[in-house]
Amino acid sequence: MLQDIALLAKLSAGRPDIEAHKEGHDNLFVFKDDVGADECKVCEEDHYLNYMKMRAVSSNIRQDILTPESVFEHIFIWMSRIVSANIFTDLSQHVNVALTGTAIQSSYLDRKRWYAQRAIDNCTLQTIESDCCSLTKPNLYKEAWWRLDLGLVMTIQDITIYYRNDFLNRFGGYSLYVSNSTAIPTQEELCYKDNSILLTDVNLNPTHVCPSVARYVTVYNRRETPKTRDWYDDFAVLELCEVQVFGCPIGVYGYGKCTNRCSSKCFGGNCNAATGHCFYCTPGFFGTLCTHECPRNCKDKICTQDTGVCLDCEDGFFGPSCLPCSTGCIDPVCNKTSGNCDFCEDGFFSPLCSPCSSGCVDTVCNKTSGNCDTCLTGFYGSDCTQTCPVGCEDRCDKATGACLGCLNGKYGLTCDRRCSDQCKNGKCTQLHGKCEDNINVAAIGIGTGCGLVIVVLVVVIIVMVRRNSRNQADGSKPNQMTDMTEMDGRRTNDPTYYGIGESGPHEVDSDRYEGLDPRTVEQPHAYETVQIHL
Length: 534
What we know:
The chain has 534 residues and is an alpha+beta fold. It is built from 7 helices and 20 strands.
């Protein structure tokens, strides 16, 4: 504040046409006529921002003729401007780049009072009596426009408009454009279009976010016949009291300060004046700050800024990330969107020229369907990708997978069932599981029974022979078998004949053995010469 007062005091020194008044609120300087060339000398010595404050005041004074009768009125008006517009406060909080621009409009009602430059004098009073507003000629034209030239391309963040109070019917339906040319407004970049349905919906002090890099700002309105809204004024009229454009010069950002450098990867060095986010990226990068690299196979290294998807691919690559075409493509070249190949090498099939199944003989298949002519052992299916059942002896049917033979001990279409244990060598028919050679259980039983009978007979014969031999040793018919009845009789009368295992007295008569000739060779018993053959 003190710096601003000192500046104006210096400017007014030696100038009787500039008077200072103390009104209890602030130091108020009333310019009785044009400030003149001395203004520029002061600006060379002080900060550019102070010059903007001076210009905001003096640009309007040049157009005014102050008479003694209107001095008090202008004192009041300029005091209001100073307070409301904060001319003598630190404007670094908001960099209004419109203040350095020049403005023109489609028509003028009064070129000395309500000319286009009034809308960028930093006065936000919204009454026509304040001489803060620009005004096009009313009741005459169907089209009206006001255009601001910033002098050079700026990074624009948002735009605030102050329209004349109470004239909603004139402001409704307006459009706001930003551009880098002075073309017809409807051909420029539209930032905002008012589509208020009701009269009360119209905002006379709107702020529109228009992140862009532009030199020109245009407010435009048009009236159709018949009118789009019945409450619209019949003619197009613009009554702009102030248009503020907040932004930064190219290459810097920081809302209200513009002291930070934009990312070096921002295309043209342009970034959002508030956030520093790049509007566009230099080729090969994407992201809000353009710090991520695009996929390496993007054509011309260009990809979308938000997702990094390639806009186009180099030859031999396809898809949003430009992946390599299939190695099976001839050349290899494929459709850049689908990846489909025009033609495939041998061993590959369409549409992507994928490799034929490893189950195909010689890895060769139909180039359209991928079907194999013949499958390797152990595989089946049209493309030979399915394995035969584990019970198959060798191969299986190419279409169904049914085994053409079973391993030993298995049967069934897929050889998953076991043959009966009664089957010779575990072999049975594949379809029904019947044994090929049965084991003869009856023959085994008969043979076993016969063997037992023979063994019993042999044992009986041996017993009888031994008994017969005993009889011979006793001197009775050594070579003949004694009648069993007779033997029973003898046993009854003679205890000597008790059979084996029978109890009875056995007294040894030594005299009976004395008659034997020691040299007599005893004949072998009959059972000692019998050979048993089973």
